[in-house]
Fold:
Amino acid sequence: MSKFGAFLKRKNVVFSGKRYGIDALGAMAQGLFASLLVGTILNTLGSQFHIGFLTKILVTVGSGEKAVHYTMGGLASAMVGPAMAVAIGYALQAPPLVLFTLVPVGFATNALGGAGGPLAVLVVAIVAAECGKIVSKETKVDILVTPIVTLLIGVGLAYLIAKPIGTAASWVGNLIMWATELHPFFMGIIVSVIVGVALTLPISSAAICAAFGLVGLAGGAAVAGCCAQMVGFAVMSFKENRWGGIVSQGLGTSMLQMGNIVKNPRVWIPPTLASAITGPIATCVFRMQMNGAAVNSGMGTCGLCGPIGVWTGWAADVASGAKSAVTAMDWIGLALVCVVLPAVLTPLLALPLRKLGWIKDGDLKLD
Structure:
């Protein structure tokens, strides 16, 4: 072994697909869940059930028209970049000074990355953590050298690549907007599949939908696709993950499965096919529109934001006269598209893949 190779081994720097594509990615999804998604769930609970301490403004940053107000959930969501970066550093077994310095690195990277923030954080946090590990405890002034090196490399790299990654993620939004001009049947398939896949990938489907103002029938198709991924993975993996998996994936995020998807991409086939079915059912059969806040189109069942967005859109349409009333068929369609069909279709679509050996027991197990 070369001296450099021995040095890297001593510093626990291991260049491997498993460490970066499975361990780091899986940990990042947990960081996302513990910040953005938990914050979203708390905000939704507070606003829908009028829970005072969850809707109370705890922190205000800035003043006047530029003031930003944060609730408890808002604070958690705002820390998504640091949470993901620290989770990645933890998975890479970074020493304390490196781990702590990843907080500002993650914040800067996510802010610069826009819709591609999570993916940018994954790349930047890995590089910054490994560089920090290399210099850690190599000097007598480690308390200065390690955080400075980690911060300079992390934020410097974020400045160079986070915005291009965000631009690439926005291309997904352009593709979605092209699909919205198609016949409702084909639009339902394409939008449902693309937004659902984006929700599971380490990019922000919610940010994409918000940036492009995805509402109406296209918003309904997006909700269908996201719900198919989340509910589909939750039910399909019930044997491995039980009720904890139902909650973490069904009300949290299907991104938790990204590590397993990297190991066996075939596990992604059933929920994606389910989204291709539920999308056109939403647009053509039930004419389901999401006329709430556009961000809800990319949230799926995370905190029930997708269905709640559809419901708030109904309420607004009834108030404005655009819709005469919310009918029983509306509610039936919402339940079928968002929960029932994904829960039934995904395990059924997985059966032949299990018989072929493409999906095996344990392939969907969450750490």
